[in-house]
Structures are given as C-alpha cells and as structure tokens.
Design goal:
This protein has 4 helices and 13 strands. With 243 residues, it is of the alpha+beta class. The two termini are 36 Å apart.
C-alpha cells in the first residue's frame, strides 16, 4: 500500500519481499511524479492477509477490492477538490525508506547459484517466471568460447532424496544416462538439489532438459564409449560453471 512499493510492479515486490499482508490504494494523479498523488481511499493498515504465492493469485485478491473501492469513491465524490488525504503513513514519525517496486527486468531473473537457496530459486521462478544463466560454449575446436544464454523455461522441482555426485554448487550434471529418462540436476548453495524440467537455449526452442543440454553442447556426451559403461557414477558434468 502506498507509499510502500511505488512503481510499476507492486504485486511482484510484495511477494519478493515476502510480505504477508497487502492492500489497495486509490490516489489522484500527480502532475509530474508517478505514484505521488493524493491518497483518497486505502485499505486500513496493515492491510489484509492474502496467502498468495503467485502474482496471479495476489491479483485475484486485490482486484475485487480495488474495483469496489473505486466505485464507492466515485459515488462519494472523493476526487473532487479539496481532496482529503487518508493514507496510512502521514510522515509524522519521520522519513522512511520505502521499497520501490521497479519493473521486473532480465537481471531480476538472472539466477545466482552462489547465493540463492533452493527455496529462493523456486520462489523466484514462481513469482517472476523463468530464470536464466549463461554458459561458455566453444565455437570451434581450439577457438575462443562464446557466452550462450539458457533459460530454465520449465523451471525446477526439488529432488526428493539425496544425490552425492556433484562436483560443486552451480555445476549442472546429467544423471541416469543408462536409463530411459536422463535428468539434469543442479546443486544449490544450501546443499539441496534441483531437477530441471525443460530448457530453452539461445536460438533454440524449449525442449526436455537432457535433450536441450545434449543438442546445444551444454553437456556433450563422450564418443567411443560402449553404452557409456565407462562413465564414473553414470553422469557427465557440464563444461563450466553457470554464469
């Protein structure tokens, strides 16, 4: 609720900040500044408990409240000057640094394996959509490498159980090469393991994670191995750490 979360993406930031309550604000238009108008109606502070996990569900909670508030305010003529400020924050207790609800851009979706826990990764993909990384791919044998973006288009799911095959955090591996359904696993910084559902590599279409990794060169399969029997622990590591 204004003046908290001014900006174009208040619903996203409410969830990213893990706020359990929310509300709706009706304001006049400021002549020069966004979200700096006079507040003429607002959900009583501290708002309502929303219980939402996604932006769509949070919008489903706030939209009917906003529609009812707008209709009642129009009927009451609250917009007619002189307007009466009714916002929850008067500023009498001193200035506060409110969170700006900036537009969600590519960098907010750039997955940080070094510091994001499994819970944080799953939470962010649920709130802001598919996350992405880059990985260096050799252009030709012996030549320089090029950075290629991969989008975890199908998201991740938490591995049910343990896996001890990982070289390091943020190094994806393929598990189950001898089985019918190989999987792409990634260990997170808090020791959990995420399973990739599907991947969209730059210049490619979204496809099953293992097939995308193999086709794009993210996890090339060694040649000359008899049914991969010589592969230790039945896995192949990606060429480099995800960026």
């Amino acid at each position: 609720m204004l003046p908290e979360f001014p900006g174009p993406a208040p619903l996203h930031h409410t969830l990213l900040e893990d706020r359990k309550t929310t509300g709706v604000t009706l304001q006049t238009l400021h002549p020069t500044r966004f979200d700096k108008g006079s507040i003429i109606a607002q959900t009583p502070y501290p708002g309502i408990e929303h219980g939402a996990k996604t932006v769509e569900k949070l919008r489903a909670v706030t939209a009917p409240i906003g529609a009812k508030m707008l209709l009642q305010s129009l009927k009451a003529g609250l917009f007619v000057p002189p307007v009466v400020e009714v916002g929850w924050y008067s500023g009498e207790s001193g200035p506060r640094n409110f969170t700006h609800a900036s537009k969600i851009g590519p960098e907010e979706r750039h997955l940080n394996w070094a510091s994001w826990s499994a819970h944080e990764i799953l939470r962010r993909q649920r709130i802001i959509g598919p996350l992405w990384n880059t990985i260096e791919i050799p252009i030709k044998q012996g030549e320089r490498k090029a950075a290629k973006r991969i989008i975890w288009d199908g998201g991740f799911r938490l591995l049910d159980g343990e896996c001890h095959l990982f070289p390091a955090t943020g190094h994806p591996i393929i598990v189950g090469l001898r089985g019918p359904s190989p999987q792409v696993y990634v260990r997170t910084c808090d020791g959990n393991v995420l399973v990739a559902n599907s991947i969209k590599a730059e210049g490619e279409v979204t496809t099953e994670a293992f097939r995308a990794a193999k086709r794009t060169g993210l996890a090339p399969i060694p040649k000359g191995l008899d049914k991969l029997a010589q592969l230790p622990h039945d896995f192949v590591a990606f060429h480099s750490r995800l960026g």
